[in-house]
């Protein structure tokens, strides 16, 4: 679990007890994602945190990426393996109105987080999450819609517009069944037919 003041909490007993871990920051953390019991990632305002010892220590990096005109906040991070990962961003804090027309940048790494680049500008200016169920298929809930990719994040199409937006979180138990939560408490479930 992460929070707005840099705290990370960890459980090893199914959630009965939670132990704090030192992230090295007292700033906003948007998400945490673990590949296994040792290697994990967390996102901050414009920072990426990485651990290889189960969260005992965290290394921080500021990726050298131009996101103009967006003042992007890193909201969510997801890896499909040790090499391929994505970060969903949010530009709600931008004072530049052009940023809202440009959309939110989607960051991508293919070398295990050593380098990051903008893979695409998604047609929603506030992404709350990302889940990639394979190297080609994924979903990103946003302020206005739920977006889907079938080409590894190169292009995105809207699956569900408006209705109960903004959408605030996403999770997937397997490759075909993601769940999305809306701000007003509705849960949406996707199934392939």
What does this structure look like?
The structure is a single chain. The chain is mainly beta and 193 residues long. It is 3% helix and 42% strand. The strands form 5 sheets. Strands 3-4-5-6 form a 4-stranded antiparallel sheet, with no helix packed on it. Strands 7-8-9-10 form a 4-stranded antiparallel sheet. The chain starts with 6 loop residues before the first strand and ends with a strand.
Blueprint of the fold:
Blueprint: E1 7-10, E2 19-22, E3 29-34, E4 40-44, E5 48-51, E6 59-61, E7 73-79, E8 85-90, H1 97-102, E9 104-109, E10 117-122, E11 131-132, E12 138-141, E13 145-149, E14 157-161, E15 167-172, E16 178-182, E17 187-189
Antiparallel strand pairs: 1-2, 3-4, 4-5, 5-6, 7-8, 8-9, 9-10, 11-12, 12-13, 13-14, 15-16, 16-17
Could you write a compact summary of the structure shown?
With 193 residues, the chain is mainly beta.
Which sequence of strands runs across the widest sheet? 3-4-5-6
Rg computed from alpha carbons, rounded to a whole number of angstroms = 16 Å
The proportion of residues in beta strands is: 35-45%
Count of individual helical segments: 1
Q: What about the largest sheet?
A: 4 strands, antiparallel
Determine the N-to-C terminus distance. Answer: 34 Å
Measured as a percent range, the helix fraction is under 10%
Q: Give the beta-strand count.
A: 17
Question: What are the segments in which pLDDT stays under 50 over at least 5 consecutive residues?
Answer: none
Average pLDDT level: 85
Order of helices and strands: EEEEEEEEHEEEEEEEEE
User: Looking at the structure, what is the overall shape?
Assistant: globular
Query: Helix/strand/pairing class, anyone?
Result: mainly beta
Quaternary structure annotation: single chain
């Amino acid at each position: 679990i992460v929070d707005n003041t840099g705290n990370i909490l960890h459980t090893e007993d199914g959630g009965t007890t939670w132990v704090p871990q030192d992230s090295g920051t007292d700033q906003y953390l948007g998400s945490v994602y673990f590949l296994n019991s040792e290697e994990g990632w967390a996102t901050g305002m414009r920072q990426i945190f990485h651990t290889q010892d189960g969260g005992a220590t965290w290394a921080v990096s500021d990726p050298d990426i131009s996101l103009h005109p967006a003042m992007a906040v890193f909201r969510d991070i997801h890896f499909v393996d040790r090499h391929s990962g994505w970060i969903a961003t949010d530009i709600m804090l931008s004072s530049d109105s052009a940023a809202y027309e440009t959309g939110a940048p989607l960051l991508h790494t293919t070398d295990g987080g050593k380098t990051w680049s903008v893979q695409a500008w998604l047609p929603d200016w506030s992404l709350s999450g990302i889940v990639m169920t394979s190297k080609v298929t994924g979903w990103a809930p946003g302020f206005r819609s739920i977006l889907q990719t079938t080409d590894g994040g190169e292009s995105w199409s809207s699956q569900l517009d408006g209705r109960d937006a903004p959408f605030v979180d996403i999770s997937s138990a397997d490759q075909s069944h993601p769940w999305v939560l809306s701000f007003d408490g509705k849960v949406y479930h996707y199934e392939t037919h």
